[in-house]
Design a protein that fits this description.
- By secondary structure, the protein is mainly alpha-helical.
- The chain has two domains: 84 residues, Orthogonal Bundle (DNA polymerase, domain 1), CATH 1.10.150; 108 residues, Intergrase catalytic core (hpI Integrase, Chain A, Orthogonal Bundle).
- The chain is 51% helix and 5% strand.
- The protein is built from nine helices and three strands; from the N terminus they run αααααααβββαα.
- It has a three-stranded antiparallel sheet with strand order 1-2-3.
- Helix 6 packs antiparallel against helix 8.
- The longest helix is centred in the N-terminal third of the chain and has 22 residues.
- The radius of gyration is 20 Å and the shape is elongated.
- The N terminus is likely disordered.
Length: 228
């Protein structure tokens, strides 16, 4: 078994041993997995008074949000989530936990391939098209950023309610087909646009009227797919 100077939670070490024996992963890969899990374990002890075997979905959500605030890349966080899923699947298989905390927590999106008919410059031009002095067009820009960053369906985007968005944790709680719930990290760029949108343009759209829609229509009401 490859050695490492870092000594972690015993379940982390058992998992690393299992990976080495079952999959024959390289020392560099095993060290990377160990480091990711150790950082999460350290964070849980510092912020939640717990450890990796007591983590829940809320803990994972908060940890991903903190990584976002620290400027960690989506690729780095996606790697952590891949590692965490493998670790908790292992603990579940071994009977060490009864619930997998990674269920319904999406990995950060690494960006979907651009349509072949559009260049990156053309997509950027599309994103820059709205007049940002107009609250409706600012709303549209924020919608485009969130749609692109999170890979949402149009109906998921237009039906978003304020309670589904956490700016502090940088995630959106999405209800898909069959009311299946998932947590989607929104990415730094989309988060910035949403913060700016909430700071002014959205209030101009609802004009003091009761409306819980994240993206209200020009009349301050819930949008539909047809009005998108």
């Amino acid at each position: 078994m490859p050695t490492d100077a870092l000594i972690d939670h015993p379940e982390i070490e058992r998992y690393i041993d299992a990976l080495w024996m079952e999959k024959g992963l390289s020392e560099n890969t095993l060290s990377s997995y160990r480091r990711d899990l150790r950082h999460f374990n350290d964070w849980l002890g510092r912020e939640r008074g717990g450890s990796v075997t007591r983590a829940d979905r809320a803990s994972l959500q908060a940890y991903l949000g903190e990584r976002l605030q620290q400027g960690r890349s989506a690729r780095s966080s996606a790697r952590f989530m891949s590692c965490a899923r493998g670790f908790y699947h292992y603990l579940l298989r071994e009977g060490r936990i009864t619930v997998d905390p990674t269920l319904d927590v999406d990995s950060p999106k690494l960006g979907r391939p651009l349509p072949k008919s559009l260049s990156e410059a053309e997509v950027e031009k599309l994103l820059q098209a709205p007049d940002l002095d107009d609250p409706l067009e600012f709303r549209d820009r924020a919608m485009l950023e969130l749609l692109y960053a999170c890979g949402l369906r149009v109906t998921e985007l237009t039906s978003l309610q304020m309670g589904q968005v956490s700016l502090n944790q940088g995630v959106v709680r999405v209800f898909g087909k069959g009311s299946k719930e998932r947590l989607v990290p929104m990415g730094e760029e989309a988060l910035t646009w949403l913060q700016r949108y909430f700071a002014g343009p959205r209030a101009e759209l609802i004009k003091g009227m009761p409306c819980d829609a994240v993206f209200p229509s020009r009349r301050g009401r819930q949008m539909t797919r047809q009005t998108f």
